Amino acid sequence: MSETTNNIAKDRTSAKTNVDAKAEVTRGALLSMGAVGAVVSIWSVASLIGGMVASGGPIALVKAWFGAVTGQ
Question: Distances from the Cα of 61 to the Cαs of 9, 10, 54, in angstroms?
Answer without folding.
Answer: 67, 66, 8
